[in-house]
């Protein structure tokens, strides 16, 4: 699709009234400065390798399609900044799945505007490699009083839940810190999959706080936590195992401070998941992301400090990835 031009895309958008999904992959020759006002209102937009999309183009896309948008993906979004969060908050309040990768500038107030606007719909949030993220927005008490998402904790206190539907959160290679993890524990009680690959600013205290909170029950519904390349120790794994009864796996590849015994335990669980056929939603996400890492080395840039068991797991999985790789597309 390297020769695709803007006029070709716009003709499709204007002349296909039943179009619901648009996916562009690696269209390096494209340049967008806007979106046609008479374009069809899309439900799903996937712009992979979208360094050609400017703030102005993204804003007009969201304005045109906002009322119907359910899922939007921007990868390699190096030309976008924090304004996109405000545009989504203003126009796309039905959005369920949002992926923005490599956005270099993210202001907390814009991030908070997004979560406050999409509090009742957002189920999937992927902000990998958005380096400006160090904390996580917590709903203001005044706003939370007006929401129907309030419920009682086990202690009988009111819980100001701001993202009650959020199940998948990916913050790989961000600057999220322990305070940010504490914020997540306060606002995402339904969280099932959390990925913190290569988040170097977190510690055992922050991970332990995920499953407990002074104002809520914490993220005790977690099934899979990806801590690859983080500075955690066995204490993090023990805390998650003790407080998250649904936990299937904690990924600890390249975690130098985790003991060999604990790494072997979770690597064996990972092998069973990768070899299994009847996977849960979280296990499928893990398997697909692992497969992309094996096919595209650029997706896995943790320090090369894996134990022998870690390397054996990758060698075994490389065989499976080659056998079934045709069913997975690379999304740069």
From TrEMBL:
Pfam families: LRR_6
Region spans: Disordered: 293-332
Domain of life: Eukaryota
GO cellular component terms attached to this protein's record: SCF ubiquitin ligase complex
Signal peptide range: none
InterPro entries linked: Leu-rich_rpt, Leu-rich_rpt_Cys-con_subtyp, LRR_dom_sf
Biased composition (Acidic residues): 303-318
Record-linked SUPFAM superfamilies: RNI-like
Any one GO BP annotation for this protein: SCF-dependent proteasomal ubiquitin-dependent protein catabolic process
Protein name: F-box domain-containing protein
UniProt organism field: Phytophthora nicotianae P10297
Lineage start: Eukaryota, Sar, Stramenopiles, Oomycota, Peronosporomycetes
